[in-house]
């Protein structure tokens, strides 16, 4: 049977914006000026937020983490060492293996990726995982 189209699942703006707000709140709780980005599975930016006092380069880094985890469907810190150099080079810098990006799953549905920047990668990853928990998204397999 031949098909003419495919259906895709993607995070809504409302949920993406809520994830960004939660991430910025967690960053503030930890005294970190956080930047958060949410992308859908096609690596399209859906929502973005930047806390006052965050660094300019964190803007790009958060989006690259979101794109990477949305595309590869795993935490950016869990992407293989073999891809550490080739992934950024092969995507013109659009993707990264720096920790702090997590895929967003509700049950078995993959809806996008969240990227956190502004602190050391390990802290960014902690904020990302806590954001998923507060959002009600799945965290299994993404533990630090």
Describe what you observe in this structure.
Helix 1 (13-29) crosses helix 4. This protein has four helices and four strands. A four-stranded antiparallel beta sheet has the order 2-1-4-3. Strand 1 and strand 2 (45-50) form a beta hairpin. The protein has 144 residues and is of the alpha+beta class. The model has no long low-confidence stretch (mean pLDDT 94). It is globular. It comes from Microbacterium capsulatum. This is Heme-binding protein.
Low-confidence stretches: none
Largest sheet: 4 strands, antiparallel
The count of DSSP E runs of length 2 or more, i.e. the number of strands, is: 4
Strand order of the largest sheet: 2-1-4-3
Strand content: 15-25%
Written as H for each helix and E for each strand, in order along the chain, the element string is HEEHHEEH
For the CA atoms, what is the radius of gyration?
Answer: 14 Å
Class per helix and strand makeup: alpha+beta
Terminal Cα span: 44 Å
| Outline type | globular
As a percent range, the share of helical residues equals: 25-40%
Mean pLDDT: 94
In short:
This protein is an alpha+beta fold and 144 residues long. It has helices spanning 13-29, 57-72, 83-90, 121-135; strands spanning 35-39, 45-50, 101-106, 109-117.
């Amino acid at each position: 049977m031949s098909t003419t189209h495919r259906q895709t699942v993607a995070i809504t703006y409302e949920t993406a914006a809520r994830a960004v707000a939660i991430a910025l709140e967690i960053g503030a709780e930890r005294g970190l000026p956080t930047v958060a980005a949410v992308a859908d599975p096609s690596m399209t930016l859906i929502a973005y937020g930047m806390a006052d006092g965050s660094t300019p380069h964190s803007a790009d880094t958060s989006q690259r983490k979101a794109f990477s985890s949305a595309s590869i469907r795993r935490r950016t810190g869990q992407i293989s060492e073999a891809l550490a150099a080739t992934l950024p080079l092969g995507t013109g810098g659009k993707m990264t293996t720096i920790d702090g990006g997590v895929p967003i799953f509700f049950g078995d549905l993959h809806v996008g990726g969240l990227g956190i920047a502004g602190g050391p990668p390990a802290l960014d990853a902690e904020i990302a995982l806590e954001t998923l928990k507060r959002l009600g998204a799945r965290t299994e397999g993404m533990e630090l």
